[in-house]
Amino acid sequence: MQWEKTQMSLVAEGTGTISVHKLHPHIGAEVRGIDLSRPLGDGTLRQIKDAWHQHTVLVFRDQNLTEDAQRKFASNFGPVAKRVPPPPGSARKVEAVAWDDMMMITDHVDANGKPVGSLGHGEMWFHTDKCYHRRPHRATFLYGIEIPSEGGDTRFSSIYAAYDRMPAELKKKLEGAMVMQGYQYGHGHRIDLSIDLKDIHHCSQPIIVVNPGSRRKGLYAASVNTLWVEGMDRDESEALLRQCFDIVEDPAIIYDHKWRVGDLVMWDNLACLHARTDWPSEQKRLLRRCTVEGEPLY
Questions:
Q1: What are 133-151's pLDDT values in tens digits?
Q2: Going from the N-terminus, what domains does the chain have, and what CATH number goes with each?
């Protein structure tokens, strides 16, 4: 396919030439020829940011990053966010491992099979990071340390492409609409809508967002997080959201990232949703995550 051959060569100060290779027609690109553990010049960072705005998800293979190096790279895109503890009513009150207040590990189990990560084990449906807070995380940086032999992929859906594919009537109904976003800790599927909101983090957000970098509109609806359209009858709300989920989960607009040790993947939370596929329960999957703060969406 033509998109597979798309490449942009970029000159990086002190690091030779980097190139950007498109991974999917709608979302995702691999950046080659760069060592993120080394200082990056202003020109290089500008080129990476341009590629990020264009492709939403950037993949850097074969990196060797300490926690400090990962955090330092992330800080080029904004203030590194502090982690938010679960609400008092959450069944998952304390995380088994918290390396510091800005970095976390995900999906891991120890030698006895005890969960020691922050996001549980197994499949997780489409969601977006911290959409249930007033200031959602703008960017996420995930680094692969231990990878299972199969499964455990991260799936990315372009909310730009989803918006573009919305029928005109659906756009008209949802333009300017607000939805309740929430997250139930340790729960990777759609939340029971009868849940008491005081037991989960939640926040009202617009369902159509405008990305501050690209200025493109996106469909900000995720099956894990988006509970209902405010001001609507629940049946009507659920019917409209099901349409939205079908659009944003269309395989045609999804890039599936198959992890390798040393991958650093960064993405724009106001341009995509992400999900996680299942993997053999006896195998380890260890990734290290940090995020960058965003601004209120309204």
A1: 999 999 999 999 999 999 9
A2: 86-298 (3.60.130.10)
